[in-house]
């Protein structure tokens, strides 16, 4: 699946790149024992990692420790480069719910060797994603409650008001590096509470005003 849809419409977007922000919530930085980064931690997932709502997560055989990360997703509706914060929200077509699935064992191993860790983040099914709610229907993306349940039990709870960089700042910073094109997706980082998922688990993420996302683990 390389297409995402706007909820309750015929509108769909072909996904280009998926740009992700790491370490954007202080409590998550602390739980991983990481330092507050000097500059934004940015990485990309390929569009081939997308998984539609209700899909099945396939954890690669090279990992024994796949973590869920619940994140607010932004869908770019209007291209731009060097977008200013004051104009940033006008470039968005919608907001969605995403899981930035992460092979924590592989990521830690690669980090310790000073090597890139895309293989921990970009595997097939590593990016479950919901349909998108039109941007105009969300009052303030910087104040939305997020909740992730695994098998009905709450694992992650937070609010986008805890993000170190606002949605506007994220768009400004990323667009200073990459031209943001229509159909690109941005993941905005995860709050604390990340933990291991395993075969048979059922995940449900919800973000206030935005919607929900479900996935199960093969
Ligand atoms: Mg993440």
Description of the structure:
The protein has 218 residues and is mainly beta. The protein has a single domain (3-217), classed as Fumarylacetoacetate hydrolase, domain 2 (Alpha-Beta Complex). The chain contains 3 helices and 18 strands. The chain has helices spanning 26-31, 104-112, 167-175, and strands spanning 3-5, 12-14, 18-22, 41-45, 50-52, 55-57, 66-67, 70-76, 92-99, 102-103, 127-129, 133-134, 145-150, 153-159, 185-187, 196-197, 202-207, 211-217. The strands form 5 sheets. The protein has a 6-stranded mixed beta sheet with strand order 4-3-15-8-9-12, with helices on one face. The protein is globular. The model has no long low-confidence stretch (mean pLDDT 96). Bound molecules: magnesium ion. Magnesium ion is lined by residues 20, 22, 69, 71, 100, 189-190.
Index terms:
six-stranded mixed sheet, single chain, five-stranded mixed sheet, 218 residues, binds magnesium ion, 3 helices, mainly beta
CATH architecture name: Alpha-Beta Complex
User: Would you tell me which CATH topology applies?
Assistant: Fumarylacetoacetate hydrolase, domain 2
Number of strands: 18
Write down the CATH class.
Alpha Beta
SSE order? EEEHEEEEEEEHEEEEHEEEE
Chain-wise SSE layout:
Layout (H helix, E strand, L loop, with lengths): L2 E3 L6 E3 L3 E5 L3 H6 L9 E5 L4 E3 L2 E3 L8 E2 L2 E7 L15 E8 L2 E2 H9 L14 E3 L3 E2 L10 E6 L2 E7 L7 H9 L9 E3 L8 E2 L4 E6 L3 E7 L1
Parallel strand pairs: 3-15, 5-11, 6-18
Antiparallel strand pairs: 1-2, 3-4, 7-10, 7-16, 8-9, 8-15, 9-12, 13-14, 13-17, 17-18
